[in-house]
Amino acid sequence: MIDALMTEFLKARRSRVPWVTVLAFTVVSLVGGLFMFILQDQGRARSLGLIGTKAALVGGEADWPTYLSFLAQTTAVGGMIVFGLVEIWVFGREFSQRTAKDLLALPTSRVAIVTAKFAVVALWCLVLSVQLLVLGLVIGTALGLPGWSTGTVLTGLLQIGAVAVMTVLLTTPVAFAASAGRGYLPGVGVLIAAVFCAQIIAALGYGQYFPWSVPALFSGLAGPGQPSPGALGFALVALVGAAGAAGTALWWRSADHDR
Question: Residue 1 — very low, low, confident or very high, per pLDDT cuts 50/70/90?
């Protein structure tokens, strides 16, 4: 298991993909800070050319609750895409680069290899979430956002963390698709379908019954009129995460790896 973990860490360290994901989450934090800067004084933003002379932003105040809510919402949607791409790269690269049979020829169990891959993905996504939280606190402090309180910030951080954990769990079926499909494209297809269906089903008002809509509902992205995901929604997320991980491990252990 230790050898499998070290191997996966080495692959990630020598790749440019982690830096691309770090850049993506940095942009998310900066965009959120830009929105808060504009909301603080829209006249100032127009004079700086940040928005058009006739444009106006509505739907929020430039304060800590709004900023933290924005970060949670972008984690629900953007995190699904970025975390899903991480899963696709970690599992699909073995087949796209034709290293799967070489990996499976090593004296390491296939379940240990899959477990190591999931562990690296989880740690990778955790680091990205912590980066988002730290940058969010720095940017919000630099902008001097009002509404700071220990309870408000702690609630916002816990919400972002919970959304990130649920999003990571919901990407495990993408790992199964990339493995069973033996490459990147099947995983990308499943990821796109999940994101698309999550938006449609949430808009129809049934998001609490569709696991991939639950993080967005929990973050408040669907608006105040949408129902809370409740215990059933959270249970479905956990079930999907466990089923995706178990299915991936079972496929790696039982499939005929002929290429």
Answer: confident
Q: Which two tokens stand for residue 119?
A: 């562990």
The sign of the torsion formed by the CA atoms of 61, 67, 72, 78 equals positive
Q: CB-based contacts of 149: which residues, under 8 Å, 6+ apart?
A: 64
How high is the pLDDT of residue 257? 65
Computed from CA positions of residues 135, 141, 144, 150, in that sequence, does the dihedral angle turn out positive or negative? positive
Q: How far is residue 237's CA from residue 212's CA, in Å, rounded to a whole number?
A: 7
**Residue 238: Cβ within 10 Å count:** 14
CA dihedral 47, 62, 37, 58 (to 10 degrees): -50
